[in-house]
Amino acid sequence: MSIHSQPASMLTKRALPSTSPYPDARYGKARLISLSTALPLAERDTMEPLSRRILLSQKETLFEQDEPADSIFNVTSGALRLYRILADGRRQVTGFALPGDFLGLSLLKRFAVSADALVSVTACRFERQAFIALLLMHPSLLMHLHEITGQELSRAKDMMMLLGRRNADEKIAAFLTGLQARYRQIGRSSVTLELPMGRLDIADHLGLTIETVSRTLSRLDRDGCILIVPGGVRLIDQGRLERMSAH
Hints:
Jelly Rolls, Arc Repressor Mutant, subunit A, 8 helices, 23% strand, globular
């Protein structure tokens, strides 16, 4: 069962770990919408009263494919894997949600993907109808969220190109430089990249095998393009990676 599908009464009864900064409930009042959404402060203040904070442990599911999409989420920390199970049982990882990302803005009646926590995650949850009513009252907020949706569509288009005729080296280079750009937007180091996703996740995202991903990363490391470090990679020859990803 996903967190999204659980009744609020169940969520409020689940105790937080003692180290949590939110000791009152697992499903509690949000204090701040993620700054990395680039929304003006006044608009974040407008949204805050409608939001509830959700905490997920690693591997917990936020929502599942084909569940009724009656909520919208804003990721405030951590990372999630977004994926679909195809008709033949194969898994397609469609992307990774990072702080600042909104999930559910497409307003489909059901979620098109599942979302699992790769690490501990915090997110703000909005009831959909109340969220839509808020947008109708605040056109400027609607415009900003439209820009965010446009960025998501642009990433989806880039993904389609990525799965085209590029070879493994070009796919991995494009994945790393794309992740670098996303980290830069949220103020993280853009040289050493944390990789919360595993190599199998990367393989299922890029249409490769896990063996190909491992060999390609090792080859890029030997060639001096990257340096594999615990938990991620350091981009050494960014010029070469950018030329490879531009093919």
